[in-house]
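Z., the sequence and structure:
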Amino acid sequence: VLKLPENKISIRDSFFRLGGNSLQTVMVISKLNQSLERMISPSVLFKHNTIQELVSYLRLEISVTDESCLL
């Protein structure tokens, strides 16, 4: 979405400091929703705007959601 070389992006770089904007946020979230088959709000990327933070959040969210399905 940002059209940056992968070797120039760290998992600790902020999506917005790399040039991401609100339209690109919607694009990223749309791709995540399709890939994960879940509904994630764009606000998640604003709050967890590095790859590292987003992955941590998604792991926790998926774990909690999957466990609640078992109840």
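Helices lie at 22-36, 42-47, 51-69. The first helix runs from residue 22 to 36.

Let me know what you think.
H.
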